[in-house]
């Protein structure tokens, strides 16, 4: 069997009912029923852009890269292609998500590069809270998408409207001013996360990231402890493990191939690290 390209594995095959009339395209919708039916208990890699909103209740939390966010009523969630995420929820809360690619707009709307939007980047703010009035307005847009989801002429404009509204929501000022130290700590955390997503396959030492941030390894870990509750080393290890979990479940790559892709020349070392973090071997995790 030919191995799927890592860049092309996505949510479509998991979230869309194979018996439905939905065809593979540059756009599809998902809700709590879609996720519940898919039973996604493993980290997955996405090749679509995604914008979602939770309308009710507490929906657990989502891990995107090495960052964990609570998901509750009013959460606006954004995720970009290539990002690995894992949901911890029972999918009882009502929510909608629209997934799309840039191809959706090619014949109708001229876009700026979506990859420049910070909330689609691995190190961006992927979850923000919306006020009730803003939630209601976003829901109106999603309801319109549901009504016209089979109309190829209308859908690009409606999804574009959701995208523009999400940009407005992210551009709103923070509700309260933060201390200078907190702002600086957040900047370091975001820069570290950006570097980690770019270099995790080749660089796994805290020194590498601290040097690139022009700070000491000790200070980097102190900052991350303050902002995330985890040390730099814990972030690096966790990022590698969630990437490994995604590859083990979403591709037919062997453990040796995954170890090599992640930058480990010794597959046995990778296996020991994975088992230490997950309590089962990579092969057992893949077969479970």
TrEMBL record:
It comes from the Bacteria. This is AraC-type DNA-binding protein. InterPro entries: Homeodomain-like_sf, HTH_AraC, Tscrpt_reg_AraC-type_HTH. Keywords: DNA-binding, Transcription, Transcription regulation. The keyword Transcription regulation applies. Pfam families: HTH_18. PANTHER family: ARAC-FAMILY TRANSCRIPTIONAL REGULATOR, TRANSCRIPTIONAL REGULATORY PROTEIN. One of its GO terms (molecular function) is DNA-binding transcription factor activity. The keyword Transcription applies. Gene3D superfamilies: Homeodomain-like. Residues 190-288 form the HTH araC/xylS-type domain.
